[in-house]
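User: I'm putting together a small comparison set for a docking exercise, and I want a reference complex before I start. The sequence is below, and the ligand is zinc ion. Could you produce the 3D structure with the ligand included, as structure tokens?
Assistant: Of course. I'll restate your input first, then give the structure tokens for the complex.
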Amino acid sequence: MRDVALVVVDMLYDFIDGTMACQGAGEAVRNSLKFIEKITEGSPESDEIIYGTFPILFVRDSHPQGHCSFQAQGGPWPEHCVQGTHGAEIHEALRPYATEELTFYKGYKKDLEQYSGFEGVNHAGQSLHEVLELLDIKNVYVCGIATEYCVRNTCEDLKKAGLRVLLLQDCLAWVDPQGHREALAAMQAEGIKLISQ
Ligand code: VGL
Ligand code: ZN
């Protein structure tokens, strides 16, 4: 199982209980944590996935003040995930699994909306895509928020790059229930595999 990774998209306080609190977020965090606990156990002797051999990559929406996606600037969204605020932080239950090298920021340019985490960059300037290639990852599990926006765009870019994408459908939260269902159906039709853990 050395070519498998998990990508956790935008499990940040503003999307969980903040200015853009999404439906299902509490469940999504609990189930993601369960999944992570499952994949990080096992022993070197077994075929199980071993802690540390299963990279967990985190995507973080990270906006400057006055970002173009905010309503005050004529965008569609309330102010959210402003750099340096609590709302932009990864949920504390998941944070122990995040490392600097495997945390990728997006939406940090004032005039650019970036739903997909694919081109997100870490502090060393490497993109998520680049790091997945360096790690020789062929299969990615994806969980996160919001299904219709950042999760969908990230999954589609991963799929287009030739990866096998396994979407953890119990580990998602959404802006709108119908939008969530439609996004799942569309992704499934594109060859993204929906799985329940
Ligand atoms: C997102 C809207 C604006 C997301 C981010 O993470 O899905 N949605 N910024
Ligand atoms: Zn955003």
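The longest helix spans residues 25-39. The chain has one domain: 4-195.
User: Thanks, that's exactly what I needed.
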